Structure prediction request, 237 residues.
Amino acid sequence: MWRRDTLASRLVRFLIPEKIPCFAARLYDAIAQTAVDTYYKEVAELVVAHMSRGKLLDIGTGPGYLPISIAKRAPEITIVGIDSSRTLLRIARENAERVGLSDRVKFMEGNGNRLEFGDNSWDMVISTGSFHAWKRPIRVIDECFRVLKAGGEAWLLDPAQVITPEALKMMERGLGIIDTLAYRWGSLTSKATPPYSREEIERIVRCTAFREGQVIENGWITVKLRKTGFAGEKRRS
Ligand SMILES: C[S@@+](CC[C@H](N)C(=O)[O-])C[C@H]1O[C@@H](n2cnc3c(N)ncnc32)[C@H](O)[C@@H]1O
Prediction:
Protein backbone atom coordinates (compact mmCIF):
# COMPACT_ATOMS: atom_id res chain seq x y z
CA MET A 1 0.00 0.00 0.00
CA TRP A 2 1.56 3.27 -1.11
CA ARG A 3 -1.10 5.63 0.05
CA ARG A 4 -2.01 6.27 3.65
CA ASP A 5 -5.75 6.60 3.22
CA THR A 6 -9.14 5.28 4.19
CA LEU A 7 -10.45 1.78 3.80
CA ALA A 8 -13.28 3.16 1.62
CA SER A 9 -10.87 4.69 -0.94
CA ARG A 10 -8.86 1.47 -0.96
CA LEU A 11 -12.00 -0.49 -1.70
CA VAL A 12 -13.05 1.89 -4.51
CA ARG A 13 -9.53 1.69 -5.95
CA PHE A 14 -9.63 -2.08 -5.87
CA LEU A 15 -12.96 -2.11 -7.70
CA ILE A 16 -12.48 0.55 -10.37
CA PRO A 17 -10.66 -0.40 -13.57
CA GLU A 18 -7.38 1.35 -14.42
CA LYS A 19 -8.51 2.25 -17.88
CA ILE A 20 -11.01 4.96 -18.76
CA PRO A 21 -14.26 3.13 -19.50
CA CYS A 22 -15.70 3.52 -22.99
CA PHE A 23 -18.69 5.64 -21.87
CA ALA A 24 -16.25 8.26 -20.50
CA ALA A 25 -13.84 8.34 -23.45
CA ARG A 26 -15.59 11.03 -25.52
CA LEU A 27 -15.89 13.42 -22.58
CA TYR A 28 -12.22 12.89 -21.68
CA ASP A 29 -11.25 13.58 -25.28
CA ALA A 30 -13.34 16.78 -25.38
CA ILE A 31 -11.76 18.03 -22.14
CA ALA A 32 -8.23 17.05 -23.21
CA GLN A 33 -8.65 18.79 -26.57
CA THR A 34 -8.99 22.15 -24.80
CA ALA A 35 -5.44 21.71 -23.44
CA VAL A 36 -3.68 21.12 -26.78
CA ASP A 37 -2.25 24.65 -26.93
CA THR A 38 -1.42 24.82 -23.24
CA TYR A 39 -0.50 21.66 -21.30
CA TYR A 40 0.34 19.29 -24.18
CA LYS A 41 2.27 22.03 -26.02
CA GLU A 42 4.29 22.78 -22.90
CA VAL A 43 5.09 19.12 -22.21
CA ALA A 44 5.88 18.47 -25.90
CA GLU A 45 8.35 21.37 -25.90
CA LEU A 46 10.08 19.96 -22.81
CA VAL A 47 10.36 16.55 -24.47
CA VAL A 48 11.71 17.97 -27.72
CA ALA A 49 14.27 20.04 -25.80
CA HIS A 50 15.40 16.78 -24.17
CA MET A 51 15.47 14.60 -27.30
CA SER A 52 15.25 15.62 -30.93
CA ARG A 53 15.35 12.15 -32.45
CA GLY A 54 14.87 8.54 -31.41
CA LYS A 55 12.08 6.28 -30.18
CA LEU A 56 9.54 7.48 -27.66
CA LEU A 57 6.89 5.39 -25.93
CA ASP A 58 3.83 7.04 -24.33
CA ILE A 59 2.10 4.83 -21.74
CA GLY A 60 -1.62 5.55 -21.14
CA THR A 61 -1.75 7.81 -24.17
CA GLY A 62 -5.52 8.38 -23.98
CA PRO A 63 -6.72 10.53 -26.91
CA GLY A 64 -3.09 10.91 -28.06
CA TYR A 65 -2.68 14.69 -27.85
CA LEU A 66 0.79 14.50 -26.33
CA PRO A 67 2.33 12.23 -29.01
CA ILE A 68 0.62 14.29 -31.70
CA SER A 69 2.03 17.53 -30.23
CA ILE A 70 5.51 15.99 -30.10
CA ALA A 71 5.29 14.65 -33.66
CA LYS A 72 4.37 18.15 -34.92
CA ARG A 73 7.55 19.55 -33.38
CA ALA A 74 10.06 16.76 -33.94
CA PRO A 75 9.85 14.90 -37.26
CA GLU A 76 12.75 12.63 -36.29
CA ILE A 77 11.11 11.19 -33.20
CA THR A 78 9.29 7.90 -33.77
CA ILE A 79 6.37 7.75 -31.36
CA VAL A 80 4.13 4.94 -30.19
CA GLY A 81 1.27 5.55 -27.77
CA ILE A 82 -0.22 2.61 -25.91
CA ASP A 83 -3.38 2.41 -23.86
CA SER A 84 -5.56 -0.31 -22.43
CA SER A 85 -8.73 1.43 -23.67
CA ARG A 86 -9.65 0.49 -27.22
CA THR A 87 -12.16 3.33 -27.41
CA LEU A 88 -9.52 5.92 -26.58
CA LEU A 89 -7.12 4.36 -29.05
CA ARG A 90 -9.73 4.71 -31.78
CA ILE A 91 -10.18 8.37 -30.82
CA ALA A 92 -6.38 8.87 -30.76
CA ARG A 93 -6.08 7.46 -34.28
CA GLU A 94 -8.87 9.79 -35.47
CA ASN A 95 -7.10 12.74 -33.83
CA ALA A 96 -3.80 11.90 -35.54
CA GLU A 97 -5.56 11.39 -38.86
CA ARG A 98 -7.30 14.78 -38.59
CA VAL A 99 -3.95 16.59 -38.41
CA GLY A 100 -2.29 14.41 -41.05
CA LEU A 101 0.07 12.64 -38.64
CA SER A 102 -1.26 9.11 -38.71
CA ASP A 103 1.83 7.82 -40.52
CA ARG A 104 4.16 9.30 -37.88
CA VAL A 105 2.36 8.42 -34.63
CA LYS A 106 1.22 4.87 -33.97
CA PHE A 107 -1.31 3.84 -31.36
CA MET A 108 -1.41 0.30 -30.03
CA GLU A 109 -3.40 -1.56 -27.42
CA GLY A 110 -1.16 -2.39 -24.50
CA ASN A 111 -0.80 -2.43 -20.75
CA GLY A 112 2.03 -0.82 -18.83
CA ASN A 113 2.11 -3.87 -16.56
CA ARG A 114 3.41 -6.01 -19.38
CA LEU A 115 4.96 -4.05 -22.23
CA GLU A 116 5.12 -6.03 -25.42
CA PHE A 117 8.50 -4.63 -26.43
CA GLY A 118 11.99 -6.03 -26.19
CA ASP A 119 14.57 -5.02 -23.57
CA ASN A 120 16.61 -1.86 -24.22
CA SER A 121 14.45 -0.81 -27.17
CA TRP A 122 13.27 2.77 -26.37
CA ASP A 123 15.17 6.04 -25.97
CA MET A 124 12.51 7.57 -23.77
CA VAL A 125 9.27 6.58 -22.06
CA ILE A 126 6.69 9.14 -21.02
CA SER A 127 3.33 9.02 -19.31
CA THR A 128 0.97 11.87 -18.47
CA GLY A 129 -1.95 11.65 -16.07
CA SER A 130 -1.83 7.88 -15.74
CA PHE A 131 0.68 7.06 -12.98
CA HIS A 132 -1.77 7.77 -10.14
CA ALA A 133 -4.24 5.27 -11.65
CA TRP A 134 -1.84 2.33 -11.98
CA LYS A 135 -2.76 -0.49 -9.66
CA ARG A 136 0.80 -1.84 -9.81
CA PRO A 137 3.02 1.24 -10.11
CA ILE A 138 6.25 -0.64 -9.34
CA ARG A 139 5.50 -3.20 -11.99
CA VAL A 140 4.89 -0.49 -14.64
CA ILE A 141 8.01 1.45 -13.66
CA ASP A 142 10.09 -1.74 -13.79
CA GLU A 143 8.72 -2.36 -17.26
CA CYS A 144 9.82 1.17 -18.24
CA PHE A 145 13.29 0.33 -16.94
CA ARG A 146 13.40 -2.93 -18.89
CA VAL A 147 12.42 -1.43 -22.26
CA LEU A 148 14.60 1.70 -21.96
CA LYS A 149 18.04 1.79 -23.53
CA ALA A 150 20.92 2.57 -21.16
CA GLY A 151 20.93 6.31 -20.55
CA GLY A 152 17.25 6.58 -21.50
CA GLU A 153 14.76 8.40 -19.30
CA ALA A 154 11.23 7.73 -18.14
CA TRP A 155 9.15 10.80 -17.31
CA LEU A 156 5.96 10.34 -15.35
CA LEU A 157 3.85 13.49 -15.24
CA ASP A 158 0.89 13.58 -12.94
CA PRO A 159 -1.88 14.65 -12.88
CA ALA A 160 -2.73 15.67 -16.44
CA GLN A 161 -3.49 19.38 -16.41
CA VAL A 162 -6.38 19.12 -18.80
CA ILE A 163 -9.03 21.12 -16.96
CA THR A 164 -8.72 24.48 -18.70
CA PRO A 165 -11.17 27.43 -18.38
CA GLU A 166 -12.62 26.28 -21.75
CA ALA A 167 -13.22 22.79 -20.39
CA LEU A 168 -14.93 24.19 -17.31
CA LYS A 169 -17.16 26.38 -19.49
CA MET A 170 -18.04 23.33 -21.57
CA MET A 171 -19.16 21.51 -18.43
CA GLU A 172 -21.11 24.49 -17.15
CA ARG A 173 -23.10 24.54 -20.39
CA GLY A 174 -24.57 21.23 -19.32
CA LEU A 175 -23.79 17.67 -20.18
CA GLY A 176 -26.02 14.92 -21.59
CA ILE A 177 -26.82 11.77 -19.63
CA ILE A 178 -23.77 9.78 -20.73
CA ASP A 179 -21.39 12.69 -20.16
CA THR A 180 -22.92 13.37 -16.75
CA LEU A 181 -22.28 9.74 -15.86
CA ALA A 182 -18.74 10.04 -17.23
CA TYR A 183 -18.17 13.23 -15.22
CA ARG A 184 -19.40 11.55 -12.01
CA TRP A 185 -17.21 8.54 -12.69
CA GLY A 186 -14.24 10.86 -13.21
CA SER A 187 -14.91 12.67 -9.93
CA LEU A 188 -15.18 9.39 -8.05
CA THR A 189 -11.97 7.96 -9.48
CA SER A 190 -10.00 11.13 -8.93
CA LYS A 191 -11.04 11.09 -5.28
CA ALA A 192 -10.05 7.42 -4.94
CA THR A 193 -6.76 7.79 -6.84
CA PRO A 194 -5.40 11.25 -6.06
CA PRO A 195 -1.88 12.11 -7.27
CA TYR A 196 0.88 10.73 -5.06
CA SER A 197 2.78 12.96 -2.68
CA ARG A 198 6.54 13.44 -3.10
CA GLU A 199 7.17 11.02 -0.18
CA GLU A 200 4.91 8.35 -1.66
CA ILE A 201 6.65 8.67 -5.04
CA GLU A 202 10.08 8.40 -3.46
CA ARG A 203 9.02 5.24 -1.62
CA ILE A 204 7.65 3.71 -4.81
CA VAL A 205 10.75 4.58 -6.86
CA ARG A 206 13.07 3.08 -4.22
CA CYS A 207 11.40 -0.30 -4.82
CA THR A 208 11.95 -0.18 -8.59
CA ALA A 209 14.99 -1.01 -10.68
CA PHE A 210 15.69 2.73 -11.07
CA ARG A 211 16.05 2.99 -7.26
CA GLU A 212 16.08 6.78 -7.37
CA GLY A 213 14.78 9.63 -9.43
CA GLN A 214 14.07 13.31 -9.49
CA VAL A 215 10.67 14.57 -8.34
CA ILE A 216 9.86 18.04 -9.64
CA GLU A 217 6.82 20.01 -8.50
CA ASN A 218 6.03 22.68 -11.07
CA GLY A 219 2.25 23.01 -11.11
CA TRP A 220 2.10 19.29 -11.67
CA ILE A 221 4.46 16.53 -10.55
CA THR A 222 7.16 15.26 -12.89
CA VAL A 223 9.11 12.16 -11.91
CA LYS A 224 12.28 11.79 -13.97
CA LEU A 225 13.94 8.38 -13.88
CA ARG A 226 17.17 7.59 -15.68
CA LYS A 227 18.36 4.12 -16.61
CA THR A 228 22.03 4.16 -15.90
CA GLY A 229 24.39 1.82 -17.74
CA PHE A 230 24.42 -0.75 -14.95
CA ALA A 231 21.14 -2.38 -13.96
CA GLY A 232 21.75 -3.25 -10.35
CA GLU A 233 19.90 -5.49 -7.93
CA LYS A 234 16.52 -4.20 -6.89
CA ARG A 235 16.08 -3.14 -3.31
CA ARG A 236 12.69 -3.89 -1.72
CA SER A 237 11.38 -1.96 1.25
C1 LIG B 1 -6.19 10.41 -17.40
S1 LIG B 1 -5.85 9.51 -18.84
C2 LIG B 1 -4.47 10.40 -19.48
C3 LIG B 1 -4.39 10.27 -20.98
C4 LIG B 1 -3.27 11.05 -21.64
N1 LIG B 1 -1.96 10.56 -21.26
C5 LIG B 1 -3.40 12.51 -21.35
O1 LIG B 1 -2.48 13.11 -20.78
O2 LIG B 1 -4.43 13.07 -21.72
C6 LIG B 1 -5.07 8.01 -18.25
C7 LIG B 1 -4.97 6.97 -19.36
O3 LIG B 1 -4.16 5.89 -18.91
C8 LIG B 1 -4.76 4.67 -19.35
N2 LIG B 1 -4.23 3.61 -18.46
C9 LIG B 1 -4.39 3.50 -17.13
N3 LIG B 1 -3.70 2.44 -16.66
C10 LIG B 1 -3.05 1.90 -17.71
C11 LIG B 1 -2.15 0.81 -17.85
N4 LIG B 1 -1.77 0.05 -16.82
N5 LIG B 1 -1.67 0.53 -19.09
C12 LIG B 1 -2.03 1.28 -20.16
N6 LIG B 1 -2.89 2.33 -20.08
C13 LIG B 1 -3.38 2.64 -18.87
C14 LIG B 1 -6.25 4.92 -19.28
O4 LIG B 1 -7.03 4.07 -20.10
C15 LIG B 1 -6.30 6.38 -19.75
O5 LIG B 1 -6.47 6.47 -21.13
Remarks:
- The chain has nine helices and seven strands.
- Residues 31 and 163 are 7 Å apart (CA to CA).
- The first strand starts at residue 54 and ends at 59.
- The domain at 7-226 is CATH 3.40.50.150 (Rossmann fold).
